[in-house]
Design brief:
Blueprint: H1 2-12, H2 14-21, H3 25-44, E1 52-60, E2 67-74, E3 79-86, H4 92-104, E4 114-117, H5 121-131, E5 136-139, H6 141-151, H7 154-161
Parallel strand pairs: 1-4, 4-5
Antiparallel strand pairs: 1-2, 2-3
Helix pairs in contact: 1-3, 4-5
Length: 162
Amino acid sequence: MAGHIISKVLRDSNRSSKRIWGFGKQVSRHIVAVTTKKLQEFKERDLSDFKAFAVFVDTINRGGPGFMVALGIDGAGRKRVLGFWEGATENHEVCQELISDLERRGLILSKKIIWVTDGGKGIIKALKDRFGKKLIHQRCTIHKDRNIQKHLAKRYRKEAHR
């Protein structure tokens, strides 16, 4: 997917890049190939050395297809992007794929990990399927605040946000 996006951007800018920088399609194809390879390496990297204390899961939409992103935090507070998966919503199947992929790449999913989500039903169902009653889940307070703000009259939003 990222290769497709990069390819489109480079194709659209090929004429101007040739005029401005003096290179065109050949370099663009090389950049797409190298970027695609690096992206695949990133998505397949081993996670067995990372001991997650908490995992944040959210979908990011920026005009194209949505991507679900998992961000891990270890006991020392260090953050690591664990991965991302294409999916317009946090549906149950995409969430199960996320959990399976993290485990396949070596992330130890102990029952002591705090999972922070926006409260979407798909991710919560996938997590409950995996961890059962031992699931430790925290609703993201930023998402909760946004949801509350949407239902308040504008004059009350600032006070409620404190």
